[in-house]
Amino acid sequence: MVPWKRCFPVLVPLLLVLGFQPGEVVAWQQAVAPAKQESPSVSGKKPTVSVLVRDPEAVQEDKQVTPASAEEPVDVELELGEDDVAAEITLQATSFSGLTPGVSKIDQVQQELGDPTSSLDQSGTLVQTYMVEPYDRVGVVLREGLLESIHVQLDGPVQLDEFCRQLELPSEEGVDFPMTDTQFLERLYPERGVSLLYRAEDDSLLVDQVDIHRIRQRDFQRAAMQLEQDQYSRALKLVRISQQLNPEEAESFAVEARVAARAGQTALALNALTRVRRLDPDDNESRLLQARLWAQTSRRQMAIKQAREIRNNSQVDSLLRAQATLVLADLVGEAGNVDASLQYYNEAIDRATMAAKETGGSERDAGILVLIEAHRSVAREIAHGDWKKGEKLEAIGRWLDVADQLAAQLQSRQAAPLLLELEGLATRLEIQLDLKEKYDETAVARQLVEHAELLIEQSSDALTNKEVHWRIGQALFTAAQLARQRGAHEQAIAHGAAAYHHLQASHSPRQDGLDGKALVGGVTFLVGSEQAVSLQDHEKAVLWYERALPYVGQPGMEKTWTSQGWHGERLVSMGLSFWKTGDRKRGLELTEQGITWIEKAVEEDQFPRRYLAVPYGNMAVMYRALGREDQARLMAQRSARLRPEDDAHLERR
User: Fold this and answer.
1) What secondary structure letter does DSSP report for 437?
2) Which of 219, 447, 604, 630 holds its CA 20 to 30 A away from the CA of 420?
3) Omega before 134 cis (within 30°)?
4) pTM of the predicted model, to two decimals?
């Protein structure tokens, strides 16, 4: 492949240029100071909220970047309809001593708590302190005479679990937040208007302060953002309440879109992004997600155009431009432009490296994620290249090793996304399949399944667990293909059967799309094919083919799970097993359909005509058994012209 002759020498030295050697990765991490993040106060002080109005100036395009060669003009954007995703809600803030934030008035506060020990009035906000047994002190905040919040400083620390039990605060509703520059953590109960300030001491979690406040939209949004990476169901529930409390808050819909996209709910994600676009047209992070989803729904050129616009915009921060460049690399690679794809991957690595070194905290971690994804993607591209085996394997190993080292950094400080390790193991299997070499996949597959099943065991979130099941199914299908490739037929059947059961357990909406149907259909066909060809067990084969046909028989599948010719070949294969198990009607129909697709591929795709020899021979035998001698003779003649005469017996491929 000519493009690789130009690009490959540039790729390997990047490992040295970037400085990502095993020892230096850790050193670089230690040299970066953590970013300071603003955390909401659980004391009596209220956070200051500023509203920034964007200056309506034109977007400034960075003239130092060049367009993707795969780009084509796009003038139309798809608008999706909006559905009200939030059900009606009724929320009530928690009460303290008969006082309820958002309900109680100043005279009720004084009646219940007595005279304050201190009082401060600032521009309509009244902050008061009371001495209330058995607490150290109680602070209240009133705004325009209405109770806003109550802050209780405990007389001594109390065990967190015991405290939550006494207050009847369900553990599954609490959302934990680290508090920057302090030893404390916050546990927020957004549905109840309660925040607990606690700390770890001698293996115990101790509560020192309680904040009881009115029900606030921002609490639901904060909690959803905190959980969006690993608790999809809970995050969606929270963000939908946030949307109902304030339907004009764009970020709530952006969170919904990100969670829905992670869970494979593409239509829901695109619908939420439509709302984001109306509420905040300049949310480039959401526009980039929209580009990713467009590519998944057959709108690649629209996606390329939008990702490129974000990457070229000099007003966009460096991290987001790195992310956009990574998306651009993926998209142009899928479009077949290897040169542009590799150039964009290199650019994404450069941008992400600078962003990670210049920032800290979550932004630094996001930059490292770009580096991980870019290194894994380059390894995939190298696997597709036409290079000597030794050079190729060495280069792939280097890129994957760097990705693993960076992933280990995130895992060491518990900053890694839930599926990061699972994705890394799946990538290794995919690359081995692309290499088309015999490879014993059992160790990696076992590690992947054990890790994924541990994730499921540790999570109570139904939607997250379904996504993990889907990922296991995808990876095990790859493992099944690797096992078949090395002739381990019973192992291929075991991998494939396990993959199918995980895919079914996922109940993923992806199965409604052609790619999802191709996955499930491909898994079930592979198991059936191995049963029929390798074990000669057509009875078991047809059980799997029965599962495959509702998927592979869908319009469009002839070019989704394979090419037209091989689609026809597979139908012929299934037809033979049905025929041999006594279902002659189904066997004949599938064989006829398969021949039609192969003949079409011969005419349109230059598919080798010789692959019609076996199907024609099968049809001859079937017609003869049904007493249709003229048709049998015609098919036998066609088959004979394509292969030796002594090979014209019933067989399968």
Assistant:
1) S
2) 219
3) yes
4) 0.83
